[in-house]
């Protein structure tokens, strides 16, 4: 009986050793295949390189900043007060951008409203480098909230993008002078939230969640090619609303200026 148990134990140990050898051989074969596969792969760099692909806005800015301006309007207007009609000194500001190298620029009509047909007013355009120029109104339309101004200087104009290229969810950014000149050339970024919006005057608008604040009015809304796709004009201001701003679509601007200037010249 003992001999039988010894024999069985011997064969059991032998079988176990055989299985272990098979497993080792299998692992060695797998390791050899893995080493062969790794040897065929491209060599990895010794350190990880992080590429900044955030949004490209910083790359575009040098090409467009000089085309954006601040606008200050000082005017004397006649207003009704508790003591009857009196002359009142007013001052306001907004943004704008050049559309032709000979000094034509676009802004909102409400930015220069107090200067329209008012000979006791002064419109000052403040350039990228701080230089300022007096401007005159070449065309004004309160209904679509656009005004075409002109200064006597050679400038760097911006380029309009195609309306047909605009897509919902597309990245956009705005540049302007929110709250006056202390925050000059502020940049905000967002997406196109809606197209062909209408706030009641029949003018098609681009809706965006890029921050549009008082003073941004008249400034450009850009696509990621650095092209103007709209003129920032308004926002919905409410405690229960956030990130709903609007820009007049570029095609409206082009139609507005078509009878005064030709962008091709």
Note the topology.
Blueprint: H1 2-40, H2 57-64, E1 68-81, E2 84-98, E3 104-107, E4 121-126, E5 132-141, E6 146-150, E7 171-176, E8 186-197, E9 205-208, E10 220-222, E11 228-235, E12 245-249, H3 250-257
Antiparallel strand pairs: 1-2, 1-4, 2-3, 3-6, 4-5, 5-6, 7-8, 7-10, 8-9, 9-12, 10-11, 11-12
Report on the structure:
This protein is α+β, with helices and mostly antiparallel strands and 265 residues long. It starts with a helix and ends in an 8-residue tail after the last helix. It is elongated and about 110 Å long. It has helices spanning 2-40, 57-64, 250-257, and strands at residues 68-81, 84-98, 104-107, 121-126, 132-141, 146-150, 171-176, 186-197, 205-208, 220-222, 228-235, 245-249. It has a 6-stranded antiparallel beta barrel. Strands 7-8-9-12-11-10 form a 6-stranded antiparallel beta barrel. The chain folds into 2 domains: 59-150, Beta Barrel (Thrombin, subunit H); 163-257, Beta Barrel (Thrombin, subunit H), CATH 2.40.10.
